[in-house]
Amino acid sequence: MWPPVARASFGLMILITALYGVSANGGDHANSSSSTISPATREHWMQRAIQALPEVVSPCPFGAFGTAIVNHTSTTELGNLICIGANLVRDIGNPTLHGEIAAINNCTAVLTAPDGPYKLTATEALAAYKDFTLYTTAEPCPMCATAIRHAGFRECVYATSIDTLIEYGWPQLDLRSKEIFERSTRLKSYTYLLGGVLESQTNAYFRWQFNDDGACPGGCERDEGSGQCLSGLFSVHNDL
Ligand SMILES: *[C@@H]1O[C@H](CO)[C@@H](O)[C@H](O)[C@H]1NC(C)=O
Ligand SMILES: *[C@@H]1O[C@H](CO)[C@@H](O)[C@H](O)[C@H]1NC(C)=O
Ligand SMILES: *[C@@H]1O[C@H](CO)[C@@H](O)[C@H](O)[C@H]1NC(C)=O
Hints:
The chain has 240 residues and is α/β, with parallel strands linked by helices. It has one domain (39-231): Cytidine Deaminase, domain 2, CATH 3.40.140.10. The protein has eleven helices and seven strands. The strands form two sheets. Strands 2-1-3-4-5 form a five-stranded mixed beta sheet. Strand 6 (220-222) and strand 7 (229-231) form a beta hairpin. It is globular. The protein starts with a helix and ends with a helix. Bound molecules: 2-acetamido-2-deoxy-beta-D-glucopyranose (3 copies). One 2-acetamido-2-deoxy-beta-D-glucopyranose binds at residues 55-56, 81, 83-85, 106, 110. Residues 40-182 form the CMP/dCMP-type deaminase domain. Keywords: Signal.
């Protein structure tokens, strides 16, 4: 038996945990469920992140960084999509709008919209991220990995690795998400990290930009003039 003082402080800890939903071992929860979410479910949501590209930008954009943010409500069901996002750096002219950051901005807008499905306050929206998994077509850069840790996501799942992007010629900061995550233990959250999901599919989206021989992703073709991969629809549109 614990002495009364220890019991009281343990009780207080439980109470604080219940009130704020933050604890040193909050990650245990993420660990146990993370390992039981099936590969098929992971692939389903990575497909959704890929699908964000044509929905938000175009089928084969230069910066093919798509994101889907999901609430895995249980380990047996698929979970719910909260929002999607895609890299908008070139479209908007904002260098911080990588796919993950654009999706976080979008999700906060979706979560707090007065006429939306959630109608959360700012405080509630911040707390909601602790339940979410971020799926992204490529490993988060240090800026995005840091934002993901500040948000306190429960999980982060990526397809193509930073090492592969570098191999394909992408100018990248040579710092893996794993390193950022490992050095973020002073933040009061734990984010499970999983890489390589559907990379066999997403690698094609990143191989052509800095490589003349790189084939275009499915449904897209090289435009002779610009050297860019364009979707059939887009090049017809361009010819007009
Ligand atoms: C489980 O979560 C804890 C944080 O609560 C973390 O320190 C540990 O590395 C995680 N273990 C695994 C296998 O992911
Ligand atoms: C996410 O799922 C949990 C159940 O696991 C639920 O309690 C929570 O309200 C959900 N969050 C949102 C924003 O729907
Ligand atoms: C924001 O997410 C919603 C819900 O998934 C989606 O319909 C919308 O296209 C997204 N907007 C942007 C700009 O990504």
